[in-house]
Amino acid sequence: MELVKRTYYWWNKWTGYSLLILLLVATPLLTIFFKIFDSPGDSWKHISETLLWGYFQNTVFILIGVAFFTFLLGVSTAWLVSNYEFPGRKYFEWLLILPLSFPGYIMAYTYVGLLSYTGPIQSFLRNNFDITFKGPLIDLMNLPGTIFILSVTLFPYVFLISRTSFLQQSKSLQEASFLLGSNRFQTFFKVALPMARPAIVGGIALASMEVLNDYGTVKYFGVNTFTTGIFRSWFSLGDSTTAIYLAAILMIFVFTILYLESWQRGNRQYASLKGTHKPTVRLEPTKPKQFLYTSICLVIFLVSFLIPFFQILHWVSMTYQKVINQDFFLLIYRSFTLAAITGVVIVILSVILLYTLRLSPFKWIKNITKISTLGYAIPGAVIAVGIMIPFLAFDKWVYNTFLTAKTAGLFLSGTLFALVFAYVVRFMAVGYNPVESGFQKIGIHVNEASRLLGSRSTKTLFKIDLPLIKNSLVSGVLLVFVDVLKELPLTLILRPFNYQTLATKTFDMATNEMIAESSNAALIIILTGIIPIILLNRLINKKIG
Amino acid sequence: MLKALIQSTFVALAGAFLIACGSANQEEVVNVYTHRHYEADQQLFDMFTEATGIKVNVVSASADELIQKLELEGPNSPADVLITVDAGRLYRAQTKDLLQAVSSDVLNSNIPAKFREPAGNWFGLTYRARILAYSVDRVSPEELSSYEALTEENWKGRVLTRSSENIYNQSLLASVIAHKGSEGAAEWASGLLANMARVPKGSDRDQVKAVASGEGDVAIVNTYYIGIMLNDANEEERKAAEKVGIFFPNQDDRGTHINISGAGVTKYAPNKDNAIKLLEFLSSKDAQEFLANINFEYPVNPAAAFSEQLLKWGTFKADDINLSVLGENNSEAVVIFDKVGWK
């Protein structure tokens, strides 16, 4: 019961900071929204008549295909490792997440090289058994190939989420199902799967966002989608308005997926009720069945990680002497600092936003803060276009207003600032979520106690809140770090003078038909990507026990 | 303290970007936008810096992206030099008014007139030939004669080349338009398409591998790719390249189609003098020999010696058409490709 009627003022310095951050993060979307009303560019007619339908078909086809295969691979393996005991199960729990460390484009180069005429498989068969093939073993440079590559790199999203969901499900419900006469198979389809549905669809939605973001794979395979269309109309045809139109259509896809995802979830929560959660009892199937389950997981692991990983190691062993030099270390240094700066900036901004939320009782502040995490759903090419346009306009304005003498260089566009800004927009959610859960875990009371004892909000933040959520802050920086390292389309458009990252170098070398050489930079990206995956897995296991 | 943290972040960011811009004012620099991704280029730039003290800043991206960037940046562009492969692209930059005509006695004496844009908007630095790579097992060189002959009946299902989206093929067709007219060019394109072993796809190297693996018997590719493959770290790549022979087509009439990698000074170059110095250096005998030795391209400077690999391939008669024509005919070539259905 409240004894005193409290009056809150919504405005304070924290809401001020937060609104500013939100405005900046929303820049690219606002740009696109306002630019849609410009009259179409010269090439819009050409693109809409000849190419648009193809972009649409390919994008939809890839989305459906990847959704299907990530579901198949992710859910089946998750069900096996969470419900059965079989040799290697403990290892597959984390081995099957490793493919996430492969960016799609690197997986694409690797598989094409692996299956090509001069690749190890064909060479081996040719040199030892005189077996020859006409062309590549399997031709991947087409739509099904794109679906294959994206599915094997993205299924761990579905695997991770559905595994967590299967483990959290109340065992009593499953037991009830058995008692009522259902077998494991029926239980899976009638009980476990429907209960895990919201989580699984969430995982597939995440994978779909990555599909819409992909540029490297579809570009390499010559499959035209909206992303390649944005690059083509912006760079080949020199028509930024058409690029904006395409970006807007792409955003319709994004919002449709987001809407469908939240619609299917509704208000339903299928988590087990408190107290009914029992530790998982895994069934021990018959030996042949155990063998089958191990084989299924093993084959998926080999195809999605180990084989391409060894191909990369093989290429590195052939080319490292040529590639690894001072410039290569400079490349690593630059990529790492860029990723680290972005990680730190994002975590600082997340803390400001979430601390505002923590201090404010207003629901609308909570709702608009969510805007800041929207960037993860926006494809990199769209963000890049949405940032380039206002930045260039700003530069032009500065030049025309303040400067008379000609100076080389631009103010915002083409600088590290533009690039980091774009990364922040794109990866805000990646750093925001761990910070948010950190704040939630420690609760508000410690903060209130400090305030009651007379500390000001800033002092409380630094003395009480931040030290308590140190681990969340570190994992936020780390997760952003890895995502920045992998990022390609946005970096390609916005990177400044003299600036190559590991990702753009890999892409450049691969498009210049030097795939073996490109694998050195690729290896660094993959190895760095493995670290947080292992940490992430530890976190899940700790949570579930 | 939070305020201080935010402030210091902004200061750090501002600092980073001031360094990025500020360095331009203190020392002599030349800013290069390049589409040429040769590893050797960086060594050449280093040699240039050593010789002149002028620092070379490089942005590398695809030619389309660079041209777009130049357009967007307009008079504010920091770029001084645009380097790209294929005359068609240099021509595109020129027609978009992104380059300026420069005159330099050194450039004029280093580079023969046919490799220069007449007004001096751009200059060829190396050239390459688009040749026929044939299977040494299944084709004898006597069967080959010209690009046109590949449309004959006996080559059905045996010809390989990449997609028409690639500018090398666009420029080849542009040269055919110049010599045979639009109708003749369309006839050639559809005749060649009818003889293809597979749907056009993949890179030039992929075409060579397809000949080696028996998917087709003759491929239209650029010379230097074969040089690169012959010297690849992967033994299998070398073996594949050894399975093809090189044939220079059209020796009895107009000569083999060639193209250039080249450079031009940008219209608003803030360091124009340094830009010209860089071009002069890149066309000098030493730089040309250095590049030709590493990259298997032909030096434009007649004083520069051919590399061992180039000598092995022998001399040939090149199509003498002015390279600007390739750019002028480019859009028509693209339309013809679309019309005949060359993917």
Automatic annotation (TrEMBL), chain A:
Gene3D superfamilies linked: MetI-like (1.10.3720.10)
Keyword Cell inner membrane: yes
GO CC annotations on file: plasma membrane
Domain ABC transmembrane type-1: 56-259, 332-536
Keyword annotations of the record: Cell inner membrane, Cell membrane, Membrane, Transmembrane, Transmembrane helix, Transport
Subcellular localization, as worded in the UniProt entry: Cell inner membrane; Cell membrane
Highest taxon of the lineage: Bacteria
Matches recorded under CDD domains: TM_PBP2
Pfam family, one: BPD_transp_1
Transmembrane portions of the chain: 14-37, 58-82, 94-117, 137-159, 242-260, 291-312, 332-355, 376-394, 406-425, 521-540
Protein name per Swiss-Prot or TrEMBL: Iron(III) ABC transporter permease
TrEMBL record, chain B:
A GO term for molecular function: metal ion binding
Signal sequence bounds: 1-26
Xref: InterPro entries: Ferric-bd (IPR026045)
CDD domains tied to this protein: PBP2_FutA1_ilke
CC annotations in GO: outer membrane-bounded periplasmic space
Annotated Fe cation binding sites: 37, 224-225
Pfam families found in the cross-reference section: SBP_bac_6
Entry keyword set: Iron, Metal-binding, Signal
Family per record: Belongs to the bacterial solute-binding protein 1 family.
Name of the protein in question: Iron deficiency-induced protein A
Organism whose genome encodes this protein: Mongoliitalea lutea
Gene: idiA
